Amino acid sequence: MALLGGLVGKQLAPDPALATLPASLSVVGLAAAVIPANMLAEKIGRKRLFQASAVGAGLAALLAAWAVYTSDFVLFSVSAVLIGLNNAVGQQYRFAAAEAGPAAEAGRAVSIVLLGGILAGYFGPEIARQTSLLIPQSVYVGSFLSLALLYWLGAGVVSATRTNQAGASAGAGAAGGQRPIRVIAIQPLFMTAVLSAMVAAGVMTLVMTATPLHLEQHAFSLDDITLVIQSHIVAMFLPSLISGWLIDRLGVVRLMLLGVLALAGTVTIGLVSQSLLHYWWALVLLGVGWNFVFVGGTVLLMRAYTRAERFKAQGLNDFILFGAQALTTFSAGSLISLASWETLLLVNVPVLALTLAVLLGVRRGLVVAG
């Protein structure tokens, strides 16, 4: 979806400004579903939810393939929303892993889960590219057929996995003494974690979504675009090899500060970008920055709630996080179409400066102990 969402959208949309609408609606579906998904996980258990969601996402991918085949922009947008629902469920994998062991190892657990993205970063765009002409008369139909198979493979993996987490029973057993969600949300620790992750996800999504469109406008080939996006996605997850260790060595706030600086590096390189190598470095730094802030923000968030409060706190966090991401995804198409690449990059500067100031305040003990 990162590689083809904007390209297919541009191919099918009645207006170029709507090119990133399907990708945006995918994130809207994610944001709308995170709170219901967390409530459902508390009732039926995460494993059952993971299984059902992956099966449904495979059907949504088939719908996307049919939409591309019939050149139906509305239907493709609907399929993107349905795929987004599964992405909302997928956000729970990192929390499930973090809760499976001691709290002191939460950072390593989140990092290990995100390592799966290294393979995804290579095989996702590569499979999309290799299967794009599977149906010769309709480019990209085969890409979404292969996506359906990947989702169903994921459902099979989850089904074969043994777990000692009871899901619903675990949530019910810890139900006593929960604070209202508004009390949890106004904690400085919670607000810092949410703000940082929201900004990182927003900046990452805005630049990542716009990059394929921008490169296509400048006559870069699909192979070049694939390389840049592929490298970016790998860079989002490869730092997970060390991010858990870095939390132990540097502390969670210092790791997040490094992430914000990497995102600022993306803006700087992007403003002078002229060659494929420039774009490559900008998107690699974008991935690294997102990883450091996202892993750090997840660990910081877990310090703001009790085990009994985890489902509603996690749901609220992801709702805010991906609601902002949906907005930036849609804005990418409009900014590239109506403004410029430079404008798209510069709008990130104020929010990155704000996040940097908040994290420096945390580190200095002005808000909470870092």
Describe the protein:
This protein is mainly alpha-helical and 370 residues long. It has a single domain (5-159, 177-363), classed as MFS general substrate transporter like domains (Growth Hormone, Chain: A), CATH 1.20.1250.20. The protein is 78% helix and 0% strand. It contains 18 helices and no strands. It has helices at residues 5-12, 21-44, 46-69, 73-90, 92-98, 106-114, 116-130, 141-159, 168-173, 181-185, 188-217, 222-237, 240-250, 252-271, 276-302, 310-338, 341-346, 349-363. Helix 5 crosses helix 6 (106-114), helix 7 packs antiparallel against helix 8 (141-159) and helix 13 (240-250) crosses helix 14 (252-271).
- Helical content stands at over 70%
User: Which sheet architecture does the biggest sheet show?
Assistant: none
CATH superfamily: MFS general substrate transporter like domains
The CA-CA distance between the termini, in Å, is 36 Å
Please tell me the total number of domains: 1
Q: What would the principal axes of the Cα set say about the shape? A: globular
* CATH class group: Mainly Alpha
The helix/strand class is mainly alpha
Secondary-structure element order, N to C: HHHHHHHHHHHHHHHHHH
Question: What fraction of the residues are assigned to beta strands by DSSP?
Answer: under 5%
> Rounded to an integer, what's the Rg over CA atoms?
20 Å
Average pLDDT reading: 86
| Poorly predicted runs | 165-175, 366-370
Number of strands: 0
CATH topology: Growth Hormone, Chain: A
CATH arch. level architecture = Up-down Bundle
Alpha plus pi helix count: 18
